[in-house]
Amino acid sequence: MTRISRRSLLGHAGLLAGAGVAGGVLAGCATEGSAPPPQTVPFRGTYQAGIDTAAQDRLAFAAFDVAPGTTRADLVAMLTSWTAAAEAMTLGQPVPGSNDEQQSPPADTGEAIGLAPGNLTVTVGFGPGLFDARFGLAAKRPTELATLPALPGDFLDPTKSAGDICVQACSEDPQVAFHAVRNLARLGRGTVVTRWTQLGFGRTSSTSTAQATARNLMGFKDGTRNLKVEDPAAMTRSVWVAPGDVPGPASWMADGSFLVSRRIRMIIETWDRDVLSDQENVFGRAKASGGPLSGGDEFTPPDFHATLAGGTPAIPLDAHIRLAAPENNGGTAILRRSYSYTDGVDVRTGMLDAGLFFIAFMRSPSQFVRLQTQLGAHDALNEYIQHTSSALFACPPGVAPGNTGDYWGRALLEG
Hints:
The protein has 10 helices and 9 strands. By secondary structure, the protein is α+β, with helices and mostly antiparallel strands. Strands 1, 2, 3, 4, 5, 6, 7, 8 and 9 form a 9-stranded antiparallel beta sheet that branches.
C-alpha cells in the first residue's frame, strides 16, 4: 500500500522541535508500527498532511504577513514552534508548554480540551512576498511562485487576497480547526500579522474514492471528476512538485505542491430564481442524480460529442463540466479541496454573502491559470458568481519522520 493510500484510508499521527518541549509532545505519539490514535492523520511524511488526505468537513484558513523588523532567525523560531504545536494538536494534545501555571497565560487557549482531533490536518504554504529582499530568499523562489495574472471574472478585494504565509486547518470539528489557526496566530504574534481569514463548511468535492460527492450551495454535486488521493500516478502527474521542476536553489520545493485559493461569491438569489433546465445546462449535469446531460449516472464519463434531436449538443458548449474537463484542456487536472462559506449579508444589497472557498493543489500554477482563463471567459456559470479573492502559496514537503529538529520550510530557510 502506498504512503498516499495509507494516509487517505487510515486517516491517522506525529513532530517536535526544540528539546524543551520534545518530551511533552512525544508522550502521546504512536510509536512506529503501532496503531495510530483514533481520529488522527499522520503529521510527518514525505508530503504535508491536508493535501493527500481525504477531505474533512470543516476548514479554518488564514493568511499572514510578516511583521516589519522580523529577521530570518525570527521566522525559523516561529516555524519551529508552529511545527511542534501543530503536531501536538493533530494528536489531540494541547500546545506544548505550561498550561497550569496560575500566574502565566496558558500555552494553549483551551477551547479544544476534551474534543477529538477529528482527523485534524494543518498545512502551511509560503507566498511570493516572502521571497523579496527581506530574508535573503530571492534566489530560492520557484520561478512560478508569483502573483497570479489578472484572470477573466476577477473582482478581487486586495484585503482578502495574497499573503506571505498561509495556514490551512481542516477537521471534522469546526472548533478544532479554529483552535489550530488561533493558536498558531498566537504563537506567531510579533513575527506575523493576520492578513485575512476564511471559515469553511461542507466540503464541496470528494478527494477519496471512499467519499460520496458533496453538493455546493447551488445544490449540485461538485467535483465528481476530481483527482483521488488513492491514484498515486495522477497525484504524481498533477499535484506533487518533482525535483526536476525546481532545480538548484528552489529544490527545497520538491515533494511539495502549489496551493491556489479563490473566494468565489455565488449570487444565490439570482440563481434560485432560475428554472431547473437552465441550471442543469449551466453545469452540464442533472441536478438530482449528478449524471452528465449526455446520459448515465454521476460517474458515467461525459460524452461531449453527444447531441440532441436537431444536432444541439447534449452538454452545452458553455457548460461548466465541458470547459473544466481535462479532455478539453490538454489533460490539465488539479486536486480540488474546496469548502462552502457564508459570511452574513452584504449590507449594500441585502443579499447573502455566500459561496465557494475554492482551494486546489497542483504541480504548477500554470494548471490553474489555463483552466480559469477558459472558464472565466466562456463558462455559463459566470452569470452567477464573482471571484473576490485570490492567493498563491508554495507548500513545502512534509516534516521528516524521526527527525525532531525538522520543521516546516527548514530546507528553504537553512539549506
